[in-house]
Design goal:
- By secondary structure, this protein is mainly α.
- It has one domain (2-101).
- The chain has five helices and no strands.
- The protein has helices at 2-7, 12-25, 29-38, 42-62, 66-101.
- The longest helix is centred in the C-terminal third of the chain and has 36 residues, at 66-101.
- The radius of gyration is 16 Å and the shape is elongated.
């Protein structure tokens, strides 16, 4: 991605989105989250984060660690809330920037 930022800066957003989709296809959801955020695909980032959290909670629950699972799920919920806040801030910030340019 760094090479594409230097050589093809206009195509980086599309590449970030495509790379995020590829990572999802490869079941690497945690790695896809940041690429979706960089591409401005906040809903996809949040969906991937939720899927990661659910998978981790299921694994922990299956191990018999019910209390750890509850703690983990609460932490996962808070992480998703933070992602939503970040996505909202970026969207609002982008809108303010666009309106200033007009």
């Amino acid at each position: 991605m760094e090479l594409s930022r230097r050589m093809f800066p206009r195509e980086v957003v599309a590449l970030e989105h495509e790379w995020g989709n590829w990572l999802v296809d490869q079941k690497q959801l945690d790695a896809a989250i940041n690429h979706f955020i960089e591409a401005g695909q906040y809903v996809k980032a949040i969906e991937a984060a939720i899927q990661v959290c659910v998978r981790v909670c299921i694994r922990v629950f299956e191990c018999g660690c019910k209390y750890a699972c509850v703690s983990l799920c609460v932490g996962a919920y808070l992480c998703v809330c933070v992602l939503v806040c970040l996505a909202t801030k970026r969207s609002i910030g982008a809108g303010l920037y666009a309106s200033r340019r007009d």
